[in-house]
Structures are given as C-alpha cells and as structure tokens.
Amino acid sequence: MRTAHALHPHKPSQIKGILFMCAAILNYSIMDALVKYLTQDYPVLMVSFFRFFFAFIPVLILIRLDGGMNALTTKRPVLHLMRALFGMAAFVSFFFGLQQLELADAVALGFTTPLFLTALSVPVLGEKVGPRRWAAVIVGFIGVLVIAQPGTSVFQMASLLPILAGFFLACTLITVKLMARTETNAMMLFSVTVIGTLITASIQPFVWVTPAWEDLFWLILVGLIGGYGQYLVANAFRNADAVVIAPFDYTAIIWATILGYLLFGDLPGLPVVIGCGVIVASGIYIIYRENQVRRAALKS
Fold first, then answer.
1. pLDDT at 86 exceeding the cut of 60
2. Burial of residue 230, with CB atoms counted within 10 A of its CB: 0-12 exposed, 13-18 middle, 19 or more buried
3. Which of 54, 141, 270, 293 has the greatest number of C-beta atoms within 10 Å?
4. What are the tens digits of pLDDT across the range 222-269?
C-alpha cells in the first residue's frame, strides 16, 4: 500500500533515498497498527474517511513543494477517476483485512502487488514478460497459498482482503503508468485524496459512530500519517532509483511483527514466516529482472 513515484527525476543520494524509504515504511506500519486498533470499535469506512480527509494537510504541503496549484492540471480526467477508485478500493480492502487478521498476516498477504503488477502489465500495457518473471509470479502465489492455507481449518475468508488490496494497488500503478507522460504527480495525489474523501464522506451518515475524544486524536493521526507517508516516499524516489529502494518496502513485515506483538500480542506462525519469505523473494527477483530488462532495452 506504499508505492509512489518521484516528483523529480534526479537522484543525488541513494543512501538518503533508502533512509527516506525506511522511514516511510515505519510511518505506514504505525498507521496500519492504528487502523487495526481503531477498527475494533469503529467502522472501517469511517476510519477510511479520516484517512483521506486529514491526509489533505500533508498532501497540500507536498503539492506546494512540487510547484503549487499550477501543477494541478490534467488532460485525462477519466484516468484520474479510475486511479482514485482503484486506490480507494485498495485502502478499504486492506483496512477490512487489518480489522480481521493479525497485523503481520495482513501485511504479508498485501505483498502480492508486484505479482499482480507483472501479470497485468502484459494484457494492459502490452509489456513482454519472460519465463523467469512468470516463474517468480507463480512462486510468489505459492507463498500466498502457504500463508492462507485454503482447504484447511485455519483458512479465513478475510485472508482474501489483503490479496484483493494488492490487486487493486497493482491496478492503481498500471493506471499511473498510463498517465505518467501527461499528468503530474501532484495532480494524481490531489485527485485520489479528493475523490476518496468525497466518496467516504457520502457514506458517513450510514456508518458514523461518534468517537471518544482520545480516539478522535488517533483517527486524525491516521490521516496525517497517511499523507506524510506520501512525502517520505516521494523523497525516497527523488533521491534514489526505484530498483534500489523498492526492496525496502518489505521491511514492513518486521515492523508489523513487532507492533503486532507489542500492541495485540500476536506472533506470526510458521506458515506465515515461510510464505512471506517466498513472496518477498519472488517480489525482489521480479524487481531485479525488470531492472535488467530495462537496462538492456536502453542499451539496444
């Protein structure tokens, strides 16, 4: 749930980019833990509204740094709507998964995004995917099966929710690729925040539960953290190449395990550890192969 694109093309410091990425993942991991805590007492769609609405504050600051309101132009409004809907579906699906699953389990199953992204890039973008990347996708989904354990007594239908979130996030990134040539990152951030806020706000009369004062603070913090994460990720991609920093996204499982144990008393079982290792390894290999293919194309 964390991928973004650089706001500027230059890469002055790979180490700085890695540090920004690690900070972003810790930031989002704290948000995930807060969402899990809050959704025990409040509807997911209400928490989602706070996530979008209060993200406006850091998002507007980020837009100002990226050229201000002059950057909020578009030639493809329909794609902005599609991207926003996919992004909102990813958030909501993942939040429902967090509500029902252990933190580390939900995060591990959410790592399926690179697998879906590779598979979707063939029919949608017309990209060529070789047998080694297809093999990595298949191996990655085997890791998903190891975690979810379908057909056994431990399987939960809720396990499908983070996987669905991974699919919707992959659709979001595919849409971003289609928009990259004509649309600014500022506009993409702004549109998803606006549309997500408007849609979730329209649902509040049906789901609203008046929060306690202390919980209101945590709800607002979810939005601020979510928006600030965009700033951290943007700076990560601004300072380092994607192939360098993308694997650090997987440090989320470390924070999810620590926070899950400290806050909820949860520890991932052996199937989750094994399956997560398989998914992470396949995802890193896909990133590595995509970088090799891209370099070969630039040389030819």
1. yes
2. buried
3. 54
4. 999 998 988 888 788 778 777 778 788 888 999 999 999 999 999 888
Decide if 112 contacts 93 (C-beta within 8 A): no
What is the structure's pLDDT at 5? 46
Helices and strands, number each (H, E), in the chain: 13, 0
Paired tokens of 124: 């949608």
For range 104-126, the mean pLDDT: 87
User: What tokens does 60 get?
Assistant: 């507007």
| Nearest by Cα to 52 from 200, 207, 211, 269 | 200
> Dihedral (C-alpha) 287, 290, 294, 297: value to the nearest 10 degrees?
160
Residue 80 in tokens: 């902005």
pTM of the model: 0.88
Contacts of residue 7, Cβ cutoff 8 Å, sequence gap at least 6: 62, 65, 66, 185, 186, 234, 237, 238
Q: Which of 225, 211, 237, 248 is nearest to 22 (CA)?
A: 248
Tokens for 248, please give them: 């650090």
